[in-house]
Specification:
mainly alpha, two-stranded antiparallel ribbon, 35 helices, elongated
Length: 772
């Protein structure tokens, strides 16, 4: 029995004898003629395979108890067959020292062509079979809500091969990698040995299977249908529940050999099964050596999978493999932890940490094909960003640390695609931890350390300021970050458990502020050194900034009235705050201040923010300020749109303003209600939509005006639903009263169903009262 250290050391070493190369088309044609139905076996391959199988079966036969009759019978049959093939004697291992091949030795280029062809054909079969849905369920948890549609994968060379010539050549290359005759028969006793649940027999069988894979003998199909490698991998992975450490090490070694092999094509569902098996062994094993081995094997397998993605002429199957593995790891990282928080050695916590570690490894070592591929950017938006939002608020420092590391790496490589996501993560995670008094000292320390890394890049600081602080509809990330760090530096409140830790935290925050200033100075120095023409982006071109997101627009389909009124600050008339056309995206740097005055935009944003504060305190005074200072159009439609679309408005203030009895306020209410589509909505759905952006005021007259206008608009949008607008008004008013009655703590005796229906009885002249 080999020691664990020996198995671990052999995990990343090549076999003692290089695996014989598969026969090429020329070799097989010369040996067997034009027929392709029964290829002639390579004597060297046959002899090597016989040695591996015979030695293993003899050991299994000695170890297997007599009650395992089927296993013993299968071993005896194969051993007798091997003796017959060797003229009554089993081949000697020394025969491998000087093999005498019957045909010319295939070149390295021919072997690469055959392997590439096998991958291409496997891609075609997997796509036609629709195994993506099954593969998604292997590693991923049950999805919550509706699952986004998975993008389709096609070969990058499809346009260069419209007639399918290359695909046909790939299939021919797959046929050239013919199975070694008898391999499937010899595998039967090895499979039975793995099913015996006897650790010693399973170890011998798995070691033999790993040798067969390493030498490239697992190829072709079983009975012309299922790929042989899939059958072999299912057998290996079915042993994962065995607790014997030698068996677990053999499983990890065999899986690693299969996935990293250049000849054995492990793809799609089988690849995910291999990853799942190593992941499972890492989680359930109590042995430190096995855990390290499984972790290292997972890392090596993922390196191989994503290296194939970056290789020249990567097939669509290589893209699909990388996508499926990446998505599965993201879903694993999103699994919630139980309450109360688990121990450090719990399976749930170790699973989350390992998945985040592997995701960080993938992102940090990603290549151009992964960083620029639309499908992978889509996966990052749909899965990885969601995982970061869930794990970024974790009270467990290790999870938060990995989440922040991934986020920093995403900004480094993917900021051109993730403008909206970066803004959300800054606002909801980083800035919230800095500003919240409930966040712990370790959370604040890790967050400041992540910011310390980010602020060291001058261009990133400029991008944050231009794309968020100068955007009228964006959160001032740069300003909020500086304010949060300044408050931490000056606060007198306890930030952590000890005074010494508080001092270290404040010093780190101060160092980060100094680094921000240094980055600004460095950016200005670089601009002056390189000259105006090299330091800015020429007109008509877009710099690689955070704003360059194909899916997110800085502004809506039409700029709001406040934004349209800022023509002097935002540039020429009709230009959005971002400096482009309406619906476009904000660029990071422009050719001249005459094109877009970012400083004026920044001040204008603060003026709008000041107007929002004034509106929340005194609505009429705030509207007057916004008209005079911020350029809000003096029309009911413009004010109504401002009330609906502007963030930060107090819903109570909006309700008070809409319920005012002045003529202009009434016109604003009419325009506000007209902008809401109530068509095909039930009465309660329409009322909920109406009350989404404001709260009903306390005065009965204001409530009456709001409900009356809502009832008229709903009746006009749903002709025939009720006999008269007054009926809709009575029902809407009664629903608001019922809601207050049900949820007010001051009302002790709640209204019953019969009482409510009695109040509505006779409301509709021609119809019975509405159902409850």
């Amino acid at each position: 029995r080999r020691s664990a250290a020996a198995v671990l050391s052999s995990l990343y070493t090549a076999p003692a004898h290089p695996p014989p190369a598969p026969m090429t088309t020329e070799t097989r044609t010369a040996a067997a003629g034009p027929s392709r139905t029964a290829p002639v076996a390579d004597p060297l391959e046959q002899k090597t395979l016989h040695i591996f199988v015979s030695r293993a079966l003899q050991k299994i036969l000695r170890e297997a108890p007599k009650k395992y009759t089927e296993l013993r019978k299968a071993c005896i049959e194969v051993i007798e067959e091997l003796k017959a093939a060797g003229d009554g004697q089993l081949p000697a291992e020394a025969d491998l020292a000087a093999p005498s091949p019957t045909g010319p030795t295939p070149s390295a280029a021919q072997l690469q062509q055959a392997a590439a062809g096998a991958e291409a054909a496997a891609a075609v079969e997997a796509e036609e079979g629709g195994a993506g849905a099954e593969a998604a369920a292997i590693l991923s948890p049950a999805p919550s809500g509706r699952e986004p549609a998975t993008p389709s994968f096609s070969s990058p060379d499809h346009d260069a091969d419209p007639d399918g010539t290359a695909a046909a050549a790939a299939r021919m290359a797959l046929d050239d990698v013919a199975p070694v005759p008898g391999t499937d028969r010899y595998f039967v006793p090895l499979r039975l040995a793995c099913e015996s649940k006897l650790p010693r027999i399973m170890e011998v069988s798995l070691h033999c299977i790993q040798k067969i894979i390493a030498y490239g003998y697992v190829r072709g199909k079983v009975a012309g249908e299922k790929p042989f490698v899939d059958v072999v991998m299912e057998t290996i992975c079915s042993c994962k529940d065995e607790e014997d450490k030698e068996v677990q090490l053999q499983i990890v070694q065999a899986v690693n050999t299969a996935v990293t092999s250049a000849v054995t094509a492990v793809h799609d569902t089988t690849l995910l099964l291999a990853v799942k098996t190593c992941f499972y062994i890492y989680l359930v094993s109590k042995n430190g050596t096995i855990q390290k081995t499984a972790n290292a094997t997972l890392t090596q397998m993922l390196d191989v999978v994503f290296a194939r993605l970056e290789s020249p002429g990567a097939s669509s199957m290589a893209q699909k493999d990388a996508f499926l593995v990446f998505r599965s790891l993201c879903k694993l990282s999103m699994k919630p932890l139980p309450e109360p928080l688990p121990a450090d050695d719990s399976i749930e916590l170790r699973s989350k940490l390992l998945s985040l570690q592997l995701l960080y490894s993938i992102i940090a070592s990603s290549g151009e094909r992964f960083r620029g591929g639309e499908k992978f950017v889509w996966a990052i938006r749909q899965y990885l960003c969601l995982s970061l939002l869930k794990n970024g608020v974790s009270p467990i420092p290790a999870i938060l640390q990995l989440s922040l590391d991934i986020f920093v790496t995403l900004i480094k490589y993917f900021k051109a695609h993730l403008k909206s996501e970066i803004g959300v993560f800054f606002s909801n995670i980083l800035l919230r931890i800095l500003e919240s008094s409930n966040s712990s000292g370790p959370q604040k320390r890790l967050t400041i350390q992540a910011l310390r890394v980010l602020v060291a890049e001058p261009q990133l600081m400029v991008d944050l300021f231009l794309n968020y602080d100068c955007d009228l509809e964006g959160k001032g990330i740069f300003t909020s970050m500086c304010d949060g760090l300044s408050r931490l530096t000056l606060t007198l409140q306890a930030l952590s458990e000890t005074t010494e830790q508080d001092a270290q935290l404040k010093q780190l925050a101060l160092e980060t502020l100094v680094a921000i200033a240094d980055s600004m100075v460095a950016w200005e120095r670089d601009v002056k050194a390189e000259g105006a023409g090299a330091a800015v982006t020429p007109v008509g071109q877009r710099p690689p900034s955070i704003a360059d997101s194909s899916s997110v627009s800085m502004v809506g389909p039409e700029p709001s009235p406040v934004h349209r009124g800022g023509g002097e600050a935002a540039g020429e008339a009709g230009q959005s705050p971002g400096g482009g056309e309406a619906g476009g995206e904000v660029t990071a740097v422009v050719a001249s201040r005459e094109s877009v005055d970012f400083e004026a935009m920044f001040h204008r944003k603060h003026e709008v923010h000041e107007g929002v504060i004034k509106f929340n305190m005194k609505p009429k005074r705030g509207i007057r300020y916004l008209r005079e200072v911020c350029g809000l159009e003096d029309t009911p439609q413009a004010v109504a749109r401002f009330l609906r679309e502007t963030d930060g408005l107090d819903k109570r203030a909006v309700g008070d303003y809409l319920g005012e009895g002045e003529d202009f306020c009434k016109q604003v209410l009419y325009a506000y209600v007209d902008s809401i589509d109530f068509a095909n909505l039930t009465f309660d759905q329409a009322l909920r939509r109406f009350l989404t952006h404001f709260w009903l005021p306390g005065e009965a007259q204001k409530i009456d005006r709001l409900i009356e206008e809502f009832a008229a608009q709903w009746h006009a949008s749903n002709v025939g639903a009720l006999d008269h607008p007054d009926t809709a008004y009575l029902i809407a008013f009664s629903l608001t009263m019922l809601n207050s009655d049900a949820h007010s703590a001051q009302v002790k005796k709640k209204m019953t169903r019969e009482q409510y229906l009695g109040q509505l009885r006779g409301t509709c002249k021609d119809e019975p009262p509405p159902p409850s």
